[in-house]
Amino acid sequence: MAAGGSYSIVEYFGGDDGYRCGYCKHENGNFSHGEPMDSVHEEGIQPPSQEPLKIDHSEVQDITTSSDTDTTNSTAPTTPREDAAPVPAEKTPSATPKPGKGADPNRPQCRKAKDIRKERRLQKEQQKQQEAVSSSVNPAPKSSPNQPKSLEEFITESLPNDPLHRLEVRLVRSNPPSPQFKASFDASYQVYKLYQMAIHKDPPDKPTESQVRLVPVSFEDPDFLESYVQSAALYARYQMTIHGDAPSECGESQFKRFLCDSPLEAEMAPDGPDVGYGSFHQQYWLDGRIVAVGVLDILPSCVSSVYLYYHPDFSSLSLGTYSALREIAFTRQLQQQSPKLAYYYLGFYVHSCPKMRYKVMVDIKGQYRPSDLLCPETYTWVPIERCIPRLDISAYSRLNENAQTGDARALKELGRALVLHRRTVMPYAAYARKRKGSNDEKEVEQYASLVGQTCAERILLYRA
């Protein structure tokens, strides 16, 4: 139940028959129990005691590799720079020079450098005094053509009536961003990008914050609407190229149902992040077009990574790994605003599926640490380094090594599960008494066993 007293409402459909798996393509290898959700409040679907994948962000390893040589702590002996000063050329013997003619009487006599500096300083002081006297008579004197202009005169020099170019300098507030700053942001970024490429030799596709946009999944949001057609086309291309879907399997209606029609309600909480809770698309833009989209759910204690799709032309860039690291950094940013939002959840993990290896391994030298997998029998989180050996042996495995451990949140009292019947909230025990002869007890028990006692008492199961 949400803080405001609203319930999450779900329906339940058992999944005893297998169907085609989108990853391994097995025709009946995918089994799931579905819960279409009418409206879901974030607190209702995420009990605090059952937390998703936790990332200690201080220990997330860098995906970049370096050589074994630490150039910052080199122990090689240092020597004075040979190019610090010119080395005089080796002297060679020459003929005896002829006697000189002495000083040239037509040139002024040599003077010491300090005397010349002293004289120049006196001349400048006299010039300043003369300018001060003349300014009292004429406040706006014009410099003579032979005198250097002051800085103010130089930058405020009047232009002809029809100049070829005109420079305008504007001062706009950047934080908090003023309307003028927002209006000129795109143009300013393009100048910055050209500067970085030309002066600092940055690659054109160097990632920057301005290339990643977080837009709420709402057809009332102008940013989401503006990018919707491009995002849907990218999704279709990704599904057909990467997953081998037919065009009819990844059309606009499938895209909307899968990644846009979210049951999560957009909510703002006093102790929550600035963007609020709900479903979002994190778009990666490159040269004015979307090249990847990460679908995220932002919940009170975690960021849940729902799906990622990208342009197949960029498949060599390991965008699954890159987006995961970006999302970990994003979770850290949200945690600064809401300390209880401390987890990053990567969703399902299928050990035998190569496409999912990015969820646990960055490369052969490292992984995201610490990270955990949820035991399918005890519903406790187990460090992934203890899970991998078991999954290497068997595709399905109990991950918790303690045979005595059970599910602490297992269903104990079916009668306490809440249902919604004819717009009335009631415990299942009251519903069963009211509906004498009801034959749905097995279905309700299966549902409540899957969600656990805690969630069964917080979420409303819709009953027709």
Automatic annotation (TrEMBL):
Belongs to the R-transferase family. The keyword Ligase does not apply. Residues 25-149 are annotated as: Disordered. GO terms for cellular component: cytoplasm. Residues 132-149 have a biased composition (Polar residues). Residues 35-44, 112-128 have a biased composition (Basic and acidic residues). Keywords: Acyltransferase, Transferase, Ubl conjugation pathway. Residues 231-375 form the N-end rule aminoacyl transferase C-terminal domain. InterPro entries: Acyl_CoA_acyltransferase (IPR016181), Arg-tRNA-P_Trfase_1_euk (IPR017137), N-end_Aminoacyl_Trfase (IPR030700), N-end_Aminoacyl_Trfase_C (IPR007472). It comes from the Eukaryota. Its EC number is 2.3.2.8. Residues 62-79 have a biased composition (Low complexity). It catalyses: an N-terminal L-alpha-aminoacyl-[protein] + L-arginyl-tRNA(Arg) = an N-terminal L-arginyl-L-aminoacyl-[protein] + tRNA(Arg) + H(+). The lineage of its organism: Eukaryota, Metazoa, Chordata, Craniata, Vertebrata. PANTHER family: ARGININE-TRNA-PROTEIN TRANSFERASE 1 (PTHR21367), ARGINYL-TRNA--PROTEIN TRANSFERASE 1 (PTHR21367:SF1). Involved in the post-translational conjugation of arginine to the N-terminal aspartate or glutamate of a protein. This arginylation is required for degradation of the protein via the ubiquitin pathway. It comes from Labeo rohita (Indian major carp). This is Arginyl-tRNA--protein transferase 1. It holds the Pfam family ATE_C. One of its GO terms (molecular function) is arginyl-tRNA--protein transferase activity. It is an enzyme of class 2 (transferase).
